[in-house]
Amino acid sequence: MSGTDVCHGYGNRFLGILVDLDNTLYDFGYAKEKACREVVQAIGVGTEDELVRFFLFSPYGVESPKAIQSFLSEYGITDPDTFMHAVKVYTSAKINAIKAYPGVPETLLKIHMAGLKIGAVTNASQKHATERLIHIQADDFFDCLVTPDNAGMKKPDPAMFLHAASLLKIQPHQIFAAGDLSDPHGTHRVCYTSIIKALEKLRDRPWTSDCRLWLYRGAWQEWDVADVDMAVPLSPEEVIIKRNAIFRHQSQKDPAMFPGNDPREFWKRAEERNHNTAVLYDKLGMAEYQAIEMFRLYKEGMKI
Prior knowledge:
Layout lengths: L15 E4 L8 H16 L4 H9 L9 H9 L5 H18 L6 H10 L3 E5 L4 H10 L8 E3 L1 H4 L6 H11 L5 E5 L8 H15 L10 E5 L13 E5 L1 H12 L18 H18 L7 E7 L7
Parallel strand pairs: 1-2, 2-3, 4-5
Antiparallel strand pairs: 5-7, 6-7
């Protein structure tokens, strides 16, 4: 969330940032797997993968200890003491395995020192989210923590993000979202839809008349240069910063699960796409740059 863009002669200082917690600030998947491994070792039945599946498909939610109860019942274990011991082992192992990704504490400190507000929006419970932030020693950096417990809903409900913006007392002038909408169930389309619905609910607020939604492309596609409203040059140093940012995102740092006919990793796809865009602009007679990121300005009813 930021001030208005430089293209129209205004300032562009960012005012705040909203982040997720699990698998964004730390590797929660690893912590959960390690906790499951310690449980099966302590109890002496089943496998780590089996217990993980019980959590993933639990009708009570992926955090509920009832998943452990169901797992034990599968092996004929109904003793309450064994169940309580397994829960204790799981809870302790999970929190102890949570470690901040490299660079997270330093990045949060830089954002905080720059005077930006930081909010967390998560589907974890208030108790779990607070515990994890304290464990990685990051709780003091956050100005608000929005969870289903205090917001009354879960992501991707846009009200979660509206609640966070309200707590931070920020009226965004710029919003950036992915414009890759080919997958109707993909995260890009879900997030994009949440943003559009949130802006529709806030249509009557005065600040929305000066709020712009910029759409960028992901690793696979690029905008047609004739449709672009803003092109941002990237220096070689900024290209490396973007590459490292991709490396630190859990789902982006390894080969794509469904790569299609393109075996390149995400960072390679994105880097080559930005470079090819810069080459195109150079051929059109513009200045030569290492890379360029292109954006389209959202207009109501536009087709993507």
